[in-house]
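Fold Annotation — chain and its backbone

Fields — amino acid sequence, structure tokens

___
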Amino acid sequence: MEIETGNCKRTISSGDDDDSSNRTGTWVSASAHIITAVIGSGVLSLSWAIAQLGWIGGSISLVIFSVITWYTSALLADCCRDPVSGRRCSCYTDTVKSHLGGINIKFCGIAQYVNLVGVTIGYSITSAISMAAIKRSGCFHNKGHDAGCHVQNNMFIIIFGVIEIILSQIPNFHELSWLSVVAAVMSFAYSSIGLSLSIAKVVGGSHSTTSLTGTTVGVDVTGSQKIWNCFEALGNIAFAYAFSTVLIEIQDTLKSSPPENESMKKATSVGVSVTTMFYISCGVLGYAAFGNAAPGNFLTGFGFYEPFWLIDIANLCIIIHLVGAYQVFCQPIFKQVEDWSLKRWPNNNFMKESRPIKLPLFGDYHFSTFKLVWRTCYVITATVVAMIFPFFNGVLGLLGAASFWPLTVYFPIQMHMSRENIRPLCWKWIWLNVLVVACLIISGLAAAGSVAAITKQLQTYKPFSSVS
């Protein structure tokens, strides 16, 4: 499908495009969207990532990725309007078209939508792991920690998919504020529970082995495993900060008084600061609790079976959070395909049909058969793929590596330099390009590590047979 970006644009008059009742967002709602998008399944893998990189490398990596994400997100927020017409851009590819044009448009579109699709698949996997953990914790509580208590993940992936089929009928991004607020509260809840359990384990006299450089070659891993795991860990950390993919879409929900770029910068500062605090706390304390044997998902790893009811609450919060986060990432996909289809077949009744239906408590809902069919098919496809490739850390690392460089670093910096007319070879031009190249290298290494991990798992894995 050819990626069109004109569909994302809105026709405005008199320079004021914010009288629409759709744009009622504030920096508070934007912060909720960001926290929902950022504090997701990525936080669960951070103790494992720090175990690979060690106290020094892990902590420094978290801070560096945080600073880079905050800085480039601020640059991206300033690019929300066309530099010539002043109209507002409502999606990432539209922003790139307005500032860069050319091949950059398709490159951005491919990078963004591949990442969005990947994130929805990753969230399906993570939610299934948490659902399975709830069932397993009850089993361990009743039968003891020596019991097998293994469960198939497929049924839980399907359950999550059914929930998302229903929620995917939410008309658009502007209707998601309440869902993001609920999801943000859930993210705080399960992060806090994981944090508390880590503290309890450490205070209780945990004798886990930790080191400045993480896992020990010859003891915990081989030399090659150490290298690949470190690369994969960088991808996991990059994934944990991935929200630039939907930043413009979030910003498009904001009123323009105060100016939306100022509100978005404030929301970005709040969102990234809060998530970094949680990430460092959960990652560092999770590593302190589990040491070099930290599991890929620190809430479902060995050692957190009691108190089982608290583990169940934490995993339930993860599930509720991912239910909302899934919609934050898939709504741009829905909108893009629906706008493209309507433009491609403007006179097709199946595409245009929309009739109001009164729903109790929700008022009028404009039902569209096309949206029902297309969105349902998308969720089913993502669900099936999640059942085929349920590799938690490897998938998260690959998604982080694939999206971090182009969407979080390259395009925001290139658009900023174009917008500000920064002269080639001046000091700012040099250090911005050094940042671009350095992040490209990091993303490449992270992708290599994640692909190596997935390849190793594929050697012994059979599709549709994932077990927790």
